[in-house]
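Aim 2 progress. For CapA family protein, the working sequence is reproduced below.
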Amino acid sequence: MITRRVTRALDPAVQSLIELVQSADIAFTNLEVLPNDFRGYPAEESGGTHLAARSWVLDDLLDFGFTLFACANNHSLDYGVEGLLATIEELEAREVAFAGVGRNLDLARAPAYLEHRGGIAALLACASTFARGQQAGAQRPELPGRPGLNPLRVETTYEVTPQQLEALREVAEALGLEQQRLERIQLGFAFPPDDPDVFPFLEARFRPAERPAVRTAPNRRDLDAILAWTRDARRRADLVIVSVHAHEQAATKEEPAEFLITFAHAAIDAGADVVVGHGPHLLRGMELYRGKPIFYSLGNFIAQNELVELLPADAYERFRADPAMTPSQVFLQRNENERKSFPADRRYWQTVVPICEFEGSELRRIELVPVSLGFGQPVYRRGQPRLADGEEAAEILERFAALSRPFGTAIRIEGGRGLVEIDHSA
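Predicted structure tokens for this construct:
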């Protein structure tokens, strides 16, 4: 979420991190901002903050050393289709390898390829968190497709006890909602659920079970399409990276939702070498599945969303802000003078940069570099990534190791870095 230049920072810890990224053969990032010079029309429903920036932030990220960009996330359509197309134009003008958005669904689903002297890398990117209608539409012989992002829709089912389900049925019938649902089916605008045990109620799905639970699964059509492109990329590249932007959670924000684990495993089964997640703005654990790394969320890397230059009227209305306020005042009202939200929680300002080393298609080593984004610093300095050291480095690595332990991942901490223990005999 970059809105200002980072590479010009004088902080030696920032410069050391830049040198680290530049030393990599391939460097991936999630581009969670629209570098479109504020072109387009602000959408009524944004990803939280209308995230647009000057197009030169792309040049700064390229100078930082990034070479592969995932663009599918809940901010991709913050400025509508026009804003997305302007972003695509800026990426194409710089010949940037990007994936996850396109002028139609096929282009949004397709991998991006990056040629390097060490081999060819492919990137696929998708998002499960987005507003309705922001997904790209398929092309037809007689009509163009809709520009948008590569969707990984989620099917959520709420399991409740039979007694609870019966209570929901009574409420639906008493309010006339069940009759309206049946009328929509009769008119051809809706369909009954495929599972006869499922009861639709207020656009949610409920199913009887012994105890309440939330179950999530990837949409079958989206999953099959993404896996088909993953298998295609496997035949065309030495290294295949699958990126997924997912805010959805399990019991806590640090635990990935059920569908995300299903998707990540399926992507590796289809040929992915790395699955990298982002979305909740904080770290989730990592898993080694069939010898391939899955990062369920790498949190924030550059977090300058509170420095976005311009906010549309919809943002002022959403945050109940006086139209006479400046953008800084709007953010201060939103976070109660930094007493809540992102500024008040240090987890949003700490991350790790994984350095994955491959020999051919075999993962040989993962080094975890702890990174601080300056929790507690003034807003104009906060959000710039720098190498963490001392107690903060240990805190970051220990938390990431604890989050990864439930996945059976062991991380050894040595000299301010984390080393993932890999079983090369597997």
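The longest strand covers residues 362-372. This observation will guide construct design in the next reporting period.
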